[in-house]
Every structure is written in structure tokens, then in C-alpha cells.
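Batch manifest line 219
LIGAND: iron/sulfur cluster
JOB: complex structure
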Amino acid sequence: MNDPLQICETFVSIQGESTFAGRPCFFIRLTGCNLRCSYCDTTYAFDGGTPKTIPQLVDEFRASGLTLVEVTGGEPLIQSGTPALLKALQAARPDAVVLVETNGSRDISVIPPGVIAIMDIKCPASGVGRTSGAGAAFDWQNLERLRPQDEVKFVISDRADFDWAVRMVNEHAIASKCQAVLFSPVSGRVEPVALAQWLLASRVSARLNLQLHKLAGLR
Ligand code: SF4
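JOB STATUS: finished
ARTIFACT:
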């Protein structure tokens, strides 16, 4: 419990990329990521940061006065203390909703019950590869580990990514395994209106997911 985690930053902003989009949220961004996506907008989280203990982080969350907290990165599940941090945040206040964003490469069964996972499935243009086995960009067994409250996100760079994502959603019946399937356009690569039109035409069970915090001019 007192072993520190390596923390890139903590901050308050609007949750922007899930069905919780629009709600004020306390963010804990952990240092380090095992992937290198071509569109990554948090490369500053790859290294550095400050060690903080779980009680320190819980105190910061409580002091924020918010009831929504998200642990993100980087990739939070590469730090062994993350499951304990998530449990401690749940215990900090009974009315809290605890989210964890993960790139999907690590076993999500370590996430405590009741915590909501927002899990990426990396598309081809991410450039991180989608092979199976150790070091893969996605652990395909995670599809069977999803809980009903979890959400799955595809970050779409181009039409080929969209077609691939639709195929994955349909072949694996992903919408039936979780709360929501999110399709997010990569800023500067796909216009939101184009992705919206593709979604409408395809009839895929997914929702358009824009980075609401950025649209609001926030980090
Ligand atoms: S998984 Fe996330 S943090 Fe890691 S490189 Fe990809 S976009 Fe960046």
C-alpha cells in the first residue's frame, strides 16, 4: 500500500473520451507506456514523473471534491501498484466512479470489480502492430475479460482503420460484451463529420466519440 507509483501528473479537467464525457473528473496520469502509437498525444508521459504513494493520491482525489476519478497514462497496467490504487480510490468515497484507461495490451482481469475499464483496441494506422503473443499491442483474451460496465475504444486514423474496426466489432460481437463501443477520430487525420457519416452508413453498433475536453479548450 505504501509503495509509490510513478506519477506523471494529477489534474482536474472535463472527462472527454467515454460515456462519462462532459463530467468534471480528477485525473491521475501514470508514467510509462509499453506502446508507441503514431498519433500519441501524451508522449511526455513516457518518462520522468514523481513517486507518490497511494494514500497521497487518495488524499488528492478527496481534496478535489469530485466524484469521478480516472487513472490513465501512459499505460497504467504496467505498474504493479495500479490495482491497489484503483481499490483505494473506490474506498475513498462510496459515491465515486473510478475509471481506468488502458491500451489493451495487458491483462485487464487485474482491474478490481466495479472499476470501469476504457480499453483501446489499436487499429492498423496506430503503427504498433496487432500480432498475438508476448509484447503484442493487444491481448485478444481481454475481449473475454470485459465486464458489462466496461467500454471499448477504437481510435480511427483513416477509412481502412474504420473498416477494420467495424469488422472487429462485428466478428467479436464486442457491443454485446460491454457498455459501449467508442469510435474516436484522430485529430488532423479524420474529420469528425466523415467518421460520423461512415458510422451512419455502416450501421455498426458503436458511438461517435469526440475529445470533448479538447473541444472545450481544455487539456
Ligand atoms: S498507448 Fe496511449 S500513451 Fe501509449 S503510445 Fe499509445 S496513445 Fe500514447
